[in-house]
């Protein structure tokens, strides 16, 4: 059975992206592997005393994201597609590509928010980085409706 890696960012467009990935998985007879990458600095805040680390914030945020992933996995399974999920911390593009390699994925499905130009210069683009560096096919779903 084929495997599709699907990065999830929990944006308002994630629901649409999941629906499209499910359709693609049904067409190619594949399973989905959901991955969410959270930044390493999730528990840090800057205040009057500089950077401060709040482990309870990090723990709470990760717990909430895992609950969301569990919900999304069940939603995929309810549509008859095998699914698993993982949450990792770090630099998103390299972690997603490493995960796809570990899973021996046949495809990566990722959304394109339609941003370009100066946005890429200052912020960077996960989709651009994935498509540029992936050794496996990447299906980019436009989600900027």
From TrEMBL:
Please give the Pfam families that the UniProt record associates with this protein: Usp (PF00582)
The identity of this protein, by name, is: Universal stress protein
Q: Give the principal location in a single coarse category.
A: cytoplasm
* Mitochondrion is among the record's keywords: no
A single cellular component GO annotation: cytoplasm
Family to which the UniProt record says this protein belongs: Belongs to the universal stress protein A family.
Q: Where in the cell is it found?
A: Cytoplasm
* Keywords, ordered alphabetically: Cytoplasm
Q: Which InterPro entries match?
A: Rossmann-like_a/b/a_fold (IPR014729), Universal_stress_UspA (IPR006015), UspA (IPR006016)
């Amino acid at each position: 059975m084929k495997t599709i890696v699907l990065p999830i960012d929990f944006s308002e467009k994630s629901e649409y992206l999941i629906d499209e990935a499910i359709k693609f998985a049904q067409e190619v007879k594949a399973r989905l592997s959901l991955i969410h990458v959270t930044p390493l600095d999730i528990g840090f805040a800057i205040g009057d005393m500089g950077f401060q680390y709040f482990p309870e914030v990090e723990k709470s945020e990760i717990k909430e994201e895992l609950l969301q992933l569990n919900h999304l996995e069940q939603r995929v399974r309810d549509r008859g597609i095998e699914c698993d999920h993982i949450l990792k911390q770090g630099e998103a593009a390299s972690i997603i590509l490493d995960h796809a390699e570990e899973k021996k994925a046949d495809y990566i499905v990722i959304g394109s928010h339609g941003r370009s130009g100066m946005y890429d210069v200052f912020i960077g683009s996960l989709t651009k980085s994935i498509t540029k560096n992936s050794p496996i096919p990447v299906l980019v779903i436009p989600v900027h409706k």
